[in-house]
C-alpha cells in the first residue's frame, strides 16, 4: 500500500468494534428469522448482513420487498430483542478506552460510523458515556446505502474535515472493511466476529483481536498524527 501523508482521523464502527456485541445481534436475527419461517444462521448474519441497514437486510432475508410500515415493525422487534439480550453485558471492547485516550492526546479526530439505529446508539454511546469523545456520530438513517457502500465513512470524514486517505477505519464486519476500502481509507479488521484471513481478503490492511493488541504498524501510523512522535512514511508501509 502507499503510505498516507499523515494519520488525521480514526473512524470507528460501533457494533462488534467499540463493543463486543455481535453475538447478541445474531441471536436476535436468528430468532426473528425463525418466527418469520426463514432459515438463517448466525454466520450468515455475521458474514453477509453485518454492516448493512435494517431496510437492506429484511428484504434480503425475506426474498421480497418489505413495505416501510412492516419494515419498521420488524426492525423494532429485532432491535428491542437485541437490546434486551445485550444490555446486561454492555462494556467497551478490551483496550478501547486507553487507545481512544492515546488518539485524543495525539489530536487525531474521532468519529463513529454505524449501521445501528438511534436507540442502539443511545444504548452503547450514552450507556457507556463515550458519545462526547467523538466529533461526529453518523448513523444508518443518514445515508442511503449501508456498508459495503463507502457512503457512511465518506460522510464521517467530510463532516470532521479530513480527507479519506488520512483516515483509518476500525471495523469487524466484512461489509465494513469493503466500505472503508471503497472510501479510500486505511482499514483495521477487529476479529471479534470474523476470522482475520477473511477480513484481510475483504481488504483489511491489518487485523487485531481488540484495541489492547494492535499491530506494530499501527503504532508507527500513530506517530504520523499531529501530536505523534514522528514516524517516517516508510515505517507505516
Ligand atoms: O455498523 P455497525 O455498528 O456494525 O452495526 C451493524 C448492525 O446494526 C444493527 O442495527 C443491525 O440489526 C445489525 O444486524 C447490524 O449488523
Automatic annotation (TrEMBL):
The keyword Thylakoid does not apply. Coiled coil: none annotated. Its cofactor is Mg(2+). Pfam families: Hydrolase (PF00702). Gene3D superfamilies: HAD superfamily/HAD-like (3.40.50.1000), Putative phosphatase, domain 2 (1.10.150.240). The keyword Ligase does not apply. This is Beta-phosphoglucomutase. It catalyses: beta-D-glucose 1-phosphate = beta-D-glucose 6-phosphate. InterPro entries: B-phosphoglucomutase_hydrolase, Beta-PGM-like, HAD-like_sf, HAD-SF_hydro_IA, HAD_sf, PGP-like_dom2. Belongs to the HAD-like hydrolase superfamily. CbbY/CbbZ/Gph/YieH family. It comes from Stigmatella ashevillensis. It is an enzyme of class 5 (isomerase). Its EC number is 5.4.2.6. Keywords: Carbohydrate metabolism, Isomerase, Magnesium, Metal-binding, Phosphoprotein.
Amino acid at each position: 500500500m502507499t503510505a498516507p501523508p499523515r494519520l488525521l482521523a480514526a473512524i470507528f464502527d460501533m457494533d462488534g468494534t467499540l463493543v463486543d456485541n455481535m453475538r447478541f445481534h445474531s441471536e436476535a436475527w436468528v430468532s426473528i428469522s425463525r418466527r418469520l419461517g426463514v432459515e438463517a444462521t448466525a454466520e450468515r448474519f455475521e458474514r453477509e448482513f453485518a454492516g448493512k441497514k435494517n431496510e437492506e437486510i429484511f428484504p434480503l432475508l425475506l426474498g421480497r420487498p418489505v413495505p416501510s410500515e412492516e419494515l419498521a415493525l420488524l426492525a423494532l422487534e429485532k432491535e428491542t430483542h437485541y437490546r434486551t439480550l445485550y444490555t446486561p453485558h454492555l462494556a467497551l471492547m478490551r483496550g478501547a478506552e486507553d487507545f481512544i485516550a492515546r488518539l485524543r492526546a495525539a489530536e487525531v479526530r474521532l468519529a463513529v460510523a454505524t449501521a445501528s439505529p438511534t436507540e442502539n446508539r443511545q444504548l452503547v454511546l450514552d450507556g457507556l458515556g463515550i458519545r462526547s469523545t467523538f466529533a461526529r456520530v453518523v448513523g444508518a438513517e443518514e445515508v442511503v446505502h449501508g456498508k459495503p457502500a463507502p457512503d457512511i465513512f465518506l460522510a464521517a470524514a467530510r463532516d470532521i474535515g479530513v480527507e479519506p486517505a488520512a483516515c483509518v477505519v476500525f471495523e469487524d464486519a466484512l461489509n465494513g472493511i469493503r466500505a472503508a476500502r471503497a472510501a479510500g481509507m486505511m482499514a483495521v479488521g477487529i476479529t471479534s466476529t470474523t476470522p482475520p484471513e477473511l477480513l484481510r481478503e475483504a481488504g483489511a490492511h491489518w487485523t487485531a483481536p481488540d484495541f489492547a493488541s494492535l499491530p506494530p504498524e499501527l503504532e508507527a501510523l500513530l506517530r504520523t498524527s499531529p501530536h505523534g512522535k514522528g514516524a517516517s512514511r516508510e515505517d507505516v508501509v
